[in-house]
Amino acid sequence: MTLIKSISGIRGTIGGNVGDNLTPVDAVKFASAYGTFLKQNSNKEKLTVVIGRDARISGPMIHNLVQNTLVGLGINVIDLGLSTTPTVEIAVPLENADGGIILTASHNPKQWNALKLLNAKGEFLNGDDGAKILEIAEAEAFLFSDVDSLGEVTENDAYMDIHIDEVLNLPLVDAEAVAKRKFKVVVDGVNSSGGIIIPKLLKQMGVEVVELYCEPNGQFPHNPEPLKEHLGDICKLVVEEKADFGIVVDPDVDRLAFISNDGEMFGEEYTLVACADYVLGKTKGNTVSNMSSSRALRDITEKHGGKYQASAVGEVNVVTLMKESNAIIGGEGNGGIIYPESHYGRDSLVGVALFLTHLASLDVTVAALRASYPQYYMSKNKIELTPQIDVDAILKTMTEKYKNEDILTIDGVKIDFPTEWVHLRKSNTEPIIRIYTEAPTQKEADILAERFVSEIKTIAGI
Per the database record, which ranges form the Alpha-D-phosphohexomutase alpha/beta/alpha domain (predicted)? Predict the structure, then answer.
């Protein structure tokens, strides 16, 4: 059981000991720290925070604890109830709120939950602000309000529809063109909020929807990380239904993966590539993704005359570099699309709408579209950490060993070889070392990954 504190938020497993897991005490403690941080950085008499959650089983419990903690601090709450991460991000500025909290552990299994913390722009807090909140939590420097100054709760369940309308109103989204193509799409909502909002968006774009695991009961039917090894059911159903493609989202709907019409993975790395290809074809500009993302985005960006840059892993790092470089689209290779025309946050709805519009303008199958892009293959591996493993020492050793290669060390160690690369880093959200590789063939990527897993284990003595 684990409790992880990072710029990605406070994330942990439900149950167990206080301080070691995301217990009710820890949920209250970190909600108190966040609320206190907002109050310390505002001159307003009354603050407002937007809250939403995914459908995981522990959601209502954590939701009630966090919400009432903010009320106890004298902060008003706008409660979206069952929602998505990008929906909450959109709601914060629309409500002129001072911050937002999404209660979700994203792609983690059902025993996990988390507090994802937003600023007044509806964007994730930066590292400095996150560190201040952790300091407040550690000191337990909370001052709660008296009975006449408690916050109030306002429920608003309209934001999923507002979010859909916002996406459909984007200039590069053409619902009419999509409707004319009469697409048939299978949706795997992993029994969370994506099972509500994605089919609703598709139907408003004139798409025939086949629903798979779209009941938002929090009983994830498979590992909720949208990777090939977890998606056998939808791959099979796309073929059986003779669908044009399939859509898979994670529990909080900020990661997006497609299944091609032949039942094969489009590749979560290529979600961003396809959407960027469409956007760059309509609007000239630059792109950003993180260091663990495919070279294919760089190739597509340069084809359209733009400049590509890589950031450290983490949405806040991608967003920071996107703003600095005036990127018109970016994201993460895990299927996260960030389109500033909408907002600075990963958003599966935006990705779905852009992809459908792109596909509607082409007379090709999804499999053929995938084949038209630069062909790279990735292998994503991880090694479970123990207290005995000194990750920093391992990364330092690897840096020294490969010092004659093209190395980037802004986030772990990325080693660029002429035709392939490997990225080694400690995860922000799980107690693991991630080993990502990419090469011109899957076999080459797998072999490179096996080599580095072996090297790390040898260095670590495991």
Answer: 8-142, 164-263, 270-375
